[in-house]
Amino acid sequence: MTPKAELVFIPGPGAGHLISAVEIAKLILDRDERLCISVLIMKLPMDFGVQSYIESLSSTTRLQFVDITVDDKTTAGFLSNKETFFMDFIQGHKPKVKDFVHNTSFSRSGSRFNSQLAGFVLDMFCTSMIDVANEFSVPSYIFFTSSASFLALCFHFESLKKEHHIDTSKYKDSDEDLTILGFKNPYPAKFLPRLTTDQTVVVTRFFDLVTHFKEMKGIIVNTFAELEPFALQSLSVPQIYPFGPVVNFNEGGHGRNSQSETESIIKWLDDQPESSVVFLCFGSMGSFDTEQVKEIAIALERSDHRFLWSLRRPPPKGKMELPSNYENFQQVLPEGFIERTNGVGKVIGWAPQVAILSHPAVGGFVSHCGWNSILESLCFGIPIAAWPQYAEQQMNAFLLVKELGLGVEIRMDYFNDFEGKYGPPDIVGAKEIESGIRQLMANGDKNEIRKKAKEMKEKSSAAMKEGGSSYASLGLLIEDVINNVSSSPNTIDCSIFK
């Protein structure tokens, strides 16, 4: 019997990384029956919305999920240094990964069919696991969970830091415009993600990971040729496989609303005119202090647009927790706001984002510009008002607004500093927010940004279909993985995937 090709996926422990990796795995398996995949799961001590999603997963004949989380004592040791905890946590799972491959490869026999280890697919934060792949003489691929533009930015700053020995902290708070390979327009230094300008141990170790990118056999990027042609053309090494947009359209299993709450939201949207509602949501970690909440409320009231606002309570200062739902919105909103906006606006807690963005009543999205949220929005042709918060989101906002013309700006150089290292974030005033909302929702279907978003919706759909750019790119990756089997000495039994 012809052996199957086995891929070992090691996604990052965060929800955005894990969920998109699982969707990538499903896409690969749906495409070719000669493949099987094991997804190794690392669970952080703080849930961050991952546990309910994990509980919704079920192994199949060719897809299994394996918990390799280290014990609590080991995790507590990593927590002793909060600055390096995340990197240490991932590094500490190397022995578990080795044990999994050893046990699966050599201790089983008599299976219905065998498979041979064809490679590792590593999250962008897990590239140190290349050492394990090398030990088993198989290639590694990266699943890069952000955009091709951010990948280009990472390579650019890795070169500045490691090859040219440039102190990139000089760009912090600079008004300089930079020329960066992968971007058509000059890139304002003030929009750079903090990890490119900080000089911390975490940043140094992140760029060590980026150096590992060059050792990989290929990089899978959740994007598509029609969305980021300029950035993709700038990336020369290693082989790039853009086969997005890969989106989890089924939010069941990791949501935080009861079915009745979700039905209430959808029912409210059903009663609104087509493309009339602006949706505000800032991701799983998105929340604001009371003063900023009031500025948003004033802007919404003045904008004269229907709105659906996902409003979350910030976690206690200094605690690594997700925002939570308010028991009573009145305690944070301006007096009388709920009554004055009754009928034209609805304030909710956690939002079933895909269900909302796919609803015909939604015409615009005020977003933190997380990459998964951007892809979800574009899949449904919804333009974005950019209000980035952290990580690479400032760059994503620049990409949307300046490079692609698919969004408008609320404030692209806004930083929400969760750790308090840089002091409290600036307050974005109501006038600024209102202006962004009005631009986003102006002129209905005649709005040029909305037209571009609708066109990108069609292009994203076409890219994933047979004959499309992403369909072809996925085929190239699968062909490469299958070819790896002939040179891999390891045999893995897939009969455990039940």
Structure overview:
Its EC number is 2.4.1.-. InterPro entries: UDP-glycosyltransf_plant, UDP_glucos_trans, UDP_glycos_trans_CS. It comes from Anisodus tanguticus. It holds the Pfam family UDPGT. With 498 residues, the protein is an alpha/beta fold. Helix content is 40%, strand content 16%. The protein is built from 19 helices and 18 strands. The strands form four sheets. Strands 1, 2, 3, 4, 5, 8, 9 and 18 form an eight-stranded mixed beta sheet that branches. A six-stranded parallel beta sheet has the order 14-11-10-15-16-17, sandwiched between helices. Strands 6-7 form a two-stranded antiparallel sheet. Helix 10 (229-234) links the parallel strand 8 (218-221) and strand 9. It is globular and about 65 Å long. The two termini are 19 Å apart.
Descriptive keywords:
18 strands; globular; 6-stranded parallel beta sheet; alpha/beta; 8-stranded mixed beta sheet; 498 residues; 19 helices; 40% helix; UDP-glycosyltransf_plant; UDP-glucosyltransferase activity
Report the strand count.
Answer: 18
General form: globular
What is the count of helical runs?
A: 19
Q: What's the rounded overall pLDDT mean?
A: 91
Proportion in helices: 25-40%
- Indicate the proportion of strand residues: 15-25%
Family: Belongs to the UDP-glycosyltransferase family.
Enzyme class: transferase
EC number: 2.4.1.-
Organism: Anisodus tanguticus
